[in-house]
Design brief:
Largest sheet: 9 strands, mixed
Bound molecules: malonyl-coenzyme A, adenosine monophosphate
Number of helices: 16
Structural class: alpha/beta
Helix content: 25-40%
CATH topology of the largest domain: Rossmann fold
CATH class of the largest domain: Alpha Beta
Strand order of the largest sheet: 2-1-10-9-11-12-13-14-15
Length: 512
């Protein structure tokens, strides 16, 4: 191994070694079309060269808002390969939301669907984006055309372990999204740990139906499969019938709880559906204990629940082997990762007491993009990151998430911070104030609900009017499913809105 290679912490270099070993084995199978590891490697090199022709240099942000495609995987890997920073965005974000992200991330290149290009073009010019390229759901587009004309060999740009690999936006309690700076070492260490902990091998076939703009689908699923030269059965989205068809061919599946409640809702989902499955993983939101129990009763298999977050990758996991997968718990800290439970003032709490989970390890991001104050706020002096998740730990280290210290709703695995929605609603004519809460939703786990009051002397806008007004401003999953009107919002003695009261008041009324 050359000295350059041995010093190179580029995640792509680690993956590339697996690609070489895998050779002609299938990397990704989509609708009967197979991309071998050899071709994945070639196409990634072509995309890397395409990025170079666009003037990309190490550290440049490549912002991508595109539907899931195999080309998108090559583009992601190519971004790592050239030493640039991958900055994916939820495809549901509106142009208004994009405006903020572009201004904050200052990407060199923006890659979007052609249909969105016209809307964004003026914005991009005003924000000095050097290039807008297109990428369509079928994997075609101007970036694909450009790549097709490029050489299929490219020398990976070496990176140090602390260099940025990705910038992932995660919304915050203040309503503004923050970019989590994720390094090559964050990703490599987590990928290696999970791969070993979950016993991945080249024989695995992973059913991949998650979006690739978040940690779960982009890092956890992709990296574990790619690092092992395993095969992925590629689904652009979670389509129940399509998933049911591919399940019997799969050995591993990863999903958010909604995937499993949807599967259990289908009589076609049986023990036979998972006959070749060795591991079914759930995460990104709490899995109801009843879903865990029902899944085992139907299939004979226990879902493995794990816990993580954008800033930390995967933190804890129920055991793969040699221990119990306990419903309602998220398992133990992964090897090399330390967790503790602390009070809001940072005092470490005795075992058995509920507090906020704090975490430290090579998985922890390097801070919020251009936001040192927020970074400082979320870290303890000894390097622990404050998760905001209320948890309790058993004497043997098993973690149970019991709630959230942060005002956060998780709907179908997507995070929604009420403050952002409240800010938008409060600006609408006729609205006095608003409180946004999460209520139990049969499909999404939690559903977003708004409770509003009328402005003095005004008639409050109707539910339909509010929902319509928010459509252009907010991604669909953030728009309240229902809007209720109250004369006054319940407040405590300090004047703080009592969201727990509101949840109690509406949880039986709300049906999703
Ligand atoms: C879609 N809709 C949602 C929604 N997804 N509304 C609320 N919450 C969601 N998650 C809207 C649609 O726009 C549509 O609106 C209506 O709800 C019905 O949509 P659908 O067709 O039923 O939705 P579908 O496309 O099937 O998507 C649902 C889903 C998807 C659950 C499959 O949201 C999904 O893939 N979620 C995974 C999220 C994820 O990967 N999270 C990982 C984060 S990483 P209308 O008005 O048009 O009818 C992380 C760290 C970690 O958290 O630990 O992993
Ligand atoms: P995100 O910022 O999108 O990465 O979401 C991270 C948040 O999802 C965590 O802080 C938790 O609140 C939640 N989360 C992830 N996995 C689980 C889980 N298994 N159980 C409960 N909450 C989870």
């Amino acid at each position: 191994m050359s000295s350059v290679m041995s010093n190179d912490a580029n995640l792509y270099t680690l993956l590339d070694a697996a690609f070489v070993r895998a050779g002609e084995r299938p990397a990704i199978i989509e609708n009967g079309r197979t991309l071998s590891y050899r071709d994945l490697r070639r196409q990634t090199a072509q995309y890397a060269n395409a990025l170079i022709t666009l003037g990309v240099t190490p550290g440049d942000r490549i912002m991508v808002q595109a539907e899931k495609s195999v080309s998108g995987v090559c583009l992601y890997l190519a971004t790592l390969k050239v030493g640039a920073v991958y900055n994916p965005l939820n495809t549901a974000y509106t142009a208004a939301e994009l405006d903020y992200f572009i201004g904050d991330a200052e990407p060199r290149i923006l890659i979007i669907a052609a249909s969105a290009k016209a809307k964004i073009a003026a914005l991009a010019v005003s924000k000095n984006i050097a290039h807008i390229e297109t990428l369509e759901p079928d994997g075609s587009g101007s970036i694909a055309d450009r790549a097709a004309k490029c050489s299929d060999t490219h020398t990976t740009v070496p990176r140090q372990s602390s260099d940025l690999a990705a910038l992932l936006y995660t919304s915050g309690t203040t309503g503004r999204s923050k970019g989590a700076m994720i390094t090559h070492n964050n990703l490599s260490s987590n990928a290696r740990t999970l791969s070993e902990y979950w016993s991945f091998s080249s024989n695995d076939v992973l059913l991949h139906a998650l979006p690739i703009f978040h940690v779960h689908g982009l890092f956890v699923a992709l990296h574990t499969a790619l690092l092992n030269g395993a095969t992925m059965l590629w689904h652009a989205k979670f389509d129940l019938d399509a998933v049911l068809k591919d399940l019997p061919k799969s050995t591993i599946m990863m999903g958010v709880p909604t995937f499993y409640t949807r599967l259990l809702g289908s009589p076609a989902f049986t023990r036979d559906s998972v006959k070749n499955m060795r591991l079914v993983i759930s995460g990104s939101a709490p899995l109801l204990a009843e879903t865990h129990v029902e899944f085992e009763a139907r299939t004979g298999q226990k879902i493995l629940e794990r816990y993580g977050m954008t800033e930390a990758g995967m933190i804890t996991s129920n055991p793969y082997a040699g221990g119990e997968r306990l419903a309602g718990t998220v398992g133990y800290a992964l090897p090399g990762i330390q967790v503790r439970i602390a009070a809001p003032d940072g005092k470490i709490l005795p075992i058995g007491e509920t507090g906020v989970l704090e975490v430290k390890g090579p998985n922890i991001f390097s801070g919020y993009w251009r936001n040192p104050e927020k970074t400082k706020e979320d870290f303890r002096a000894d390097g622990y990151f404050i998760s905001g998740d209320l948890s309790v730990m058993s004497p043997d280290g098993r973690v149970t998430i019991v709630g959230r210290a942060k005002d956060l709703i998780i709907s179908g695995g997507f995070n929604v911070y009420p403050k952002e929605i409240e800010t938008e609603i409060n600006e609408l004519p006729g609205v006095g104030e608003s409180a946004v809460i999460g209520l139990p939703h049969p499909d999404f786990g939690e559903g977003v609900v708004a409770v509003i009051t009328a402005a003095p002397g005004a008639t409050p806008p109707t539910e339909t009017a509010i929902i319509a007004a928010l459509q252009d401003r907010l991604a669909k999953f953030k728009v309240p499913k229902r809007v209720y009107v109250l004369a006054d919002l319940p407040r405590n003695a300090m004047g703080k809105v009592q969201k727990a009261e509101l949840r109690k008041q509406y949880e039986t009324t709300f049906k999703g």
